[in-house]
Write a structure and sequence with these properties.
By secondary structure, the chain is mainly α. The protein is 79% helix and 0% strand. The radius of gyration is 22 Å and the shape is globular.
Length: 428
């Protein structure tokens, strides 16, 4: 009987209900349990807290955060939107398609869904509304497409997951490319038929010359995702090095090419990056005590034995975990969910013979859907703030798009090769 773990979860839940910040609740509840049961000398605890953040892999997190902030503040996202719009403006629902592709490309730089909704939504929602789209649908396509940012490289959630689960970050990042493309494709198809049915938007004449002219102006903005994804795919750089290069590149483009930033604003961006990074690392550090307790009592194996008594089928096990993670994603921040659940779930699925890279990408897709799902989906609040509409209207408009995400999740669950094909091709 995992008494320490049981008391830990009860204490943690109680603190969260009281409104204690997640990082504080996670660390303080773990500290109380360790002091009461005393499984290790007290002098070891500071060392455990430090060891939670000393992974070299986590160095990538502030780089990707900073690249996203510079992209947003330096108006590089505007260029991505212009590029996407030039490609799809001839098609019905062209602005909706441009919204999706812009999110896909922006996600390939920032790795953050929240950054995506702020940068893309503030531009695309007013533009789509002016072009004849309903505001609730414009908001819905913006929030649902933001899920792409944490599935395609350089997803911050995947970087944290790889560090916590001790899996290859590069394989996990590359494994998210095809599922991310499938998610984008399903959204594009739905957007086309919805726009055609509701007569959204206007047509523009297809022009290769226009696409070429816009592409030349947007070329500098498109360089960042090429550096990140291309560098990781070719094995030229590690994810951490790719993040560093992306920061240098976005700084150079914003300051000297587009000239949309100055050094005074740049100082503020560094402070913002430090604040966000500190909050992430605080959670990671606090979670080290939490994961020690559940590992000390062998909780993953206890849960695994219970699940294996229910089913011996790896597929049924994955489906059960999918349902569980979808519910968790609705009520819990993605980074916190990874830190709390990855040490429990990864040993379970690996003992069932499930590929950890396949499961890692599934894990993140579930949490990505949770980011845009009520009652606590953080991206929902972000888009509601930008578009000034009620969440009920937003969720109702997004319902068909939710279904497409679930279908993709199911397909990726049933066919592991969708995830592992590229990593095996690149790294074997």
């Amino acid at each position: 009987m995992a008494v320490m773990s049981m008391h830990l979860f009860v204490l943690l839940f109680f603190m969260l209900v009281l409104g204690v910040p997640v990082a504080v609740a996670l660390g303080f509840s773990s500290l109380i349990i360790l002091m009461y049961y005393h499984p290790v000398p007290f002098c070891v605890i500071p060392q455990m807290l430090w060891s939670g953040t000393e992974s070299f892999i986590l160095v990538a997190v502030p780089f990707f955060i900073m690249a996203g902030i510079i992209m947003e503040s330096g108006k590089i996202s505007d260029k991505l939107i212009d590029f996407s719009n030039a490609i799809f403006s001839w098609s019905k629902g062209g602005l909706g398609a441009a919204n999706i592709i812009a999110s896909f490309i922006f996600g390939g730089i920032s790795g953050s869904s929240v950054a995506d909704t702020a940068a893309i939504g503030s531009i695309m929602i007013p533009k789509m509304t002016e072009n004849g789209y309903d505001r609730d649908y414009s908001s819905a396509i913006t929030v649902i497409s933001s899920t792409l940012a944490v599935v395609v490289p350089p997803s911050i959630l995947i970087v944290v997951l790889g560090a916590i689960a001790e899996q290859s970050i590069a394989r996990l990042l590359i494994g998210g490319i095809i599922p991310g493309a499938m998610m984008a494709g399903s959204m594009l198809i739905q957007n086309f038929f919805i726009s055609k049915k509701r007569d959204y938007g206007t047509y523009s004449k297809f022009s290769i010359k226009n696409i070429w002219n816009v592409s030349k102006k947007s070329l500098s903005a498109l360089g960042a995702p090429v550096i990140i994804i291309g560098g990781i795919l070719t094995g030229t750089v590690t994810p951490t090095e790719a993040g560093g290069l992306a920061v240098y590149y976005t700084i150079f483009i914003s300051l000297f090419v587009l000239k949309t930033l100055n050094w005074k604003i740049f100082y503020k961006l560094i402070i913002d990056t430090a604040k966000i990074t500190a909050s992430v690392m605080f959670v990671v550090s606090s979670a080290r005590l939490f994961t020690f307790i559940i590992s000390y009592e062998n909780l993953p194996q206890i849960i695994a034995n219970y699940l294996f008594n229910l089913t011996h089928s790896p597929l049924i096990l994955l489906l059960l975990i999918n349902v569980f993670l979808l519910i968790v994603g609705m009520i819990m921040d993605g980074v916190v969910a990874i830190i709390m659940l990855a040490p429990i779930l990864f040993p379970i699925v690996m003992s069932a013979g499930i590929d950890p890279i396949h499961f890692g990408v599934l894990f993140v897709i579930n949490l990505a859907i949770g980011l845009v799902t009520p009652p606590f989906g953080v991206c929902l609040f972000s888009v509601c703030s930008v578009s000034k509409i009620k969440m009920e209207k937003l969720v109702k408009a997004a319902f068909p798009l939710y279904l497409s995400l679930i279908v993709v999740l199911l397909i990726v669950t049933l066919f592991p090769q969708i995830v592992v094909f590229l990593p095996n091709l690149m790294f074997n």
